[in-house]
Amino acid sequence: MTRCLVSVFFFMVALALSGPSGAQGLFQDGHSALLGTPENPVEVGVGIRIDQITSVDQKAENYGAVVVLRFEWSDPALAFDPDELGRDFRVFDPPAFVRHAAARDAVVPAFVIHNQQSNRWVHESAAALRHDGHVTFVEKSSLTLQAPHFNFLRFPFDTQEFHFEVVSVFPSDFVHYYALDQFSGLGDTLGEEEWILGNARMLASTTTGLSGNESDQVSLVFEGKRHLTYYVIRVFLPMLVLVLVGWALFFLDEYRKRIDIAGANLLVFVAFNWAISADLPKLGYLTFLDFILQCMFLMTGALVVFNVMLRRLKVSGREDTARKLDNYAIKWIYPLGYAAIVGYAVWAFLMQS
C-alpha cells in the first residue's frame, strides 16, 4: 500500500516538473523509483556555494547569483564491480544518470530552489557514481532569487539577509537533507561592489514541499552591509552643507534674500527625496534617511515662513521684535532643533530596531 501511494505521488511530481525549458532543473523525469522508506529515509548531503553575485535589486527585492550546488548520497542499488568496468567510478550527465538509476530501481532525490524567481540556466552539471553506490552530483548555474527578508528601516545603516533555499521534492519521510558545510559558503571574488557580504552559514529546516507535506530544506544564509563611504560623501555631506547654509541665512540682514535662498533649499530637498526613493521599493514605513530628509524639508519650509514673518514685522515698524526673534532662532531654535531630530532618529531607528 505504501509503495502504491508513493508511486502515485512521484507521478504527480513528474507532471508538475515537466515543461518546455531544459534549463530548469536537475532531474525532470525518472521519478517512478521508490525513494527510501519512513523507517529508513535517504540521507542526502547538500552543499551551496555562491561564486558570484551578479546583481542586487532593492526595488524588486531580489538578487542574481552564480551558484555551485553539490548533492551527495549513497544507494547500494547503484553499486557496480570496479574490476569488470576497469575503474572505480562512472560519470553521467543528469538525464543519463536518471535512466541508469531508474533501471536499477534506485533513489533519485530531486530538488527545487524555493525562492527561485527566474529560469535556472545550467552552465555545467555531472553525476559521479562510485563503485560502492556513492553518488556526487555537481551543478553550476545562474538564476535570480527572491529576497523577502529585506528590511530598510535602518537604511542606509541596514544589514540585509540573503537566502538560497534548496527544498526536497519528496517528503521528509523519504528524503532527509543535511548540510555539507565544507562545500558551502561565499566565493572570494563575488563581483559585488555596493555591498559587503559575509557571515554565511548553512541552516537545515523543514517546509511545505510540492507534495503538500513537510519536506527537508537546506538554506545558505548570508548578510550584506552597505559601503557607508558612498552615503557619507553623496548624501550626508551635502545634507550637512544645506543645513549650514540654512543656519548662515540668519546672519543676512535682508529678509528677502533669506526667503529666496531658503526656497532654493526646498527644491534641493525634493531632488534628494526623489533620488533616494528611486533605489527603494514603495515602502509602507519610514526609513532612517526618510525621517531625516522629511524633517529637514519641514525645517527649511518653516525657515521660509519664519523669514516671511520677520519681514512683515520689519515692514510694520516692529524691527526690534524681529531682531530679538532672529537672535533667539540663531542661538537656540535652529541648532537645537536639528540636534533633537538627529538624536531622535538615531534612538528610534538605529537603537530600537
UniProtKB/TrEMBL annotation:
Short name of one Pfam family for this protein?
Neur_chan_LBD
Q: What's the domain of life for this entry? A: Bacteria
Locate the Neurotransmitter-gated ion-channel ligand-binding domain: which residues?
A: 38-169
Keyword vocabulary terms for this entry? Membrane, Signal, Transmembrane, Transmembrane helix
Q: Where is the signal peptide?
A: 1-23
Q: Which GO terms describe its cellular component?
A: membrane
Q: Where are the transmembrane segments?
A: 228-252, 259-276, 288-310, 331-350
Give the location in the cell: Membrane
An MF annotation (GO) of this entry: transmembrane signaling receptor activity
The annotated topology with respect to the bilayer is: Multi-pass membrane protein
Protein name, entry field = Proton-gated ion channel
Organism (species): Ruegeria arenilitoris
> What's the name of its gene?
glvI
